[in-house]
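Explain my protein.
***
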Amino acid sequence: MKNAISWFEIPTTDINRAQQFYETIFGISLMPLDMPNIKMRMFPLDDMMTQVGGALVDSGGFHKPSATEGPLVYLNANPDVQLVLDKVEAAGGKILVPKTEISPEYGYMAVFFDTEGNRVALHSVPAK
């Protein structure tokens, strides 16, 4: 198994608001993928076969945002967690755990609430 995770979905109640938040804090463009009963905004990938992918999802209630329940997803914030954290509050989120060193070899982490009420984490590893 190359990666323990192959796909993740972050629940939303307002897909456009969530898209704007994540595009702002990461400086990326999310790709829309809408189906009859579900709206998704996919994080960019170079290669779906070798990279972990994920999306913001509005499924009309099947996915529910949560500040305390369920798994905690860590998004890639390389080269430095702080560069992303610096944009969180201006984009409508709230920082829960500031940039914190895990260890010199494992890098840094942080946790924030997004605009949908989800608890989401960040991770970065210093360049060697």
Notes: The first helix runs from residue 15 to 26. The beta strands are 7-11, 31-35, 38-42, 53-58, 74-76, 94-103, 107-113, 119-124. The radius of gyration is 14 Å.
